[in-house]
Amino acid sequence: MQGKLIIFSAPSGAGKTTIVQHLLKTFPEKIAFSISATTREARGEEQNEKDYYFISKEEFLHKVAQHAFAEFEEVYSGTFYGTLKSEIQRIWDSGKTVIFDLDVEGGLRLKEKYGEDALAIFVQPPSLEVLIERLTGRGTESKEKVQERIAKAGKELSYAPKFDVILKNYDLNTACKEAEDLLLQFIEA
């Protein structure tokens, strides 16, 4: 059975994770979160098989060779992220729509692969300056990693027009309400 997918993408710090978490709390009967696989270490209180599937680089590359991913990429040097086909199918089998929190390039690859069955939403931050403040304020990563994310963010912002919808996250409550409306329109169409 093939269902629908809703993809939220944005540069790190734009608020996509917060919006996706809001939607998961609001519509638990309609959507389920696609857990990505990654080779990076867990941050803070992240848990394996809840936040990510934390796997070794060797295991990740083995799965690539087996064509187990719907999409994957080396997001940062030596750090891979990917969406397992089995994860998408698990959610469809439960009768729910899959919701994603992905980097920009991964989101566009999924949209390309699933076409009309996917809604790709780009979360637009108020400005690059606000994005930098959010990233440095997290305190969860080294200065080098923050700089890497900031450098990538400038490029990612240019991809916004390639998405189905640009959701402006200038005010979180407004963005969450608009995301609810987009989700319901797409699922019920």
In short:
This protein has 189 residues and is of the alpha/beta class.
CATH architecture: 3-Layer(aba) Sandwich
Strand order of the largest sheet: 2-7-1-8-9
Kindly give the count of domains.
1
Instruction: Extract low-pLDDT stretches.
Output: none
Going by helix content, strand content and strand pairing, the class is alpha/beta
Global mean pLDDT? 91
What is the C-level CATH assignment? Answer: Alpha Beta
Structure description:
The chain has 189 residues and is of the alpha/beta class. The chain has one domain: P-loop containing nucleotide triphosphate hydrolases (Rossmann fold). It has seven helices and nine strands, in the order βαβββαββαβαβααβα.
Keywords:
189 residues; Rossmann fold; 44% helix; alpha/beta; 9 strands
Topology:
Layout: E1 5-9, H1 16-26, E2 31-33, E3 36-38, E4 52-54, H2 57-65, E5 69-76, E6 79-84, H3 85-93, E7 97-102, H4 104-114, E8 118-124, H5 128-138, H6 143-157, E9 165-168, H7 172-188
Parallel strand pairs: 1-7, 1-8, 2-7, 3-4, 8-9
Antiparallel strand pairs: 3-6, 5-6
Helix pairs in contact: 1-7, 5-6
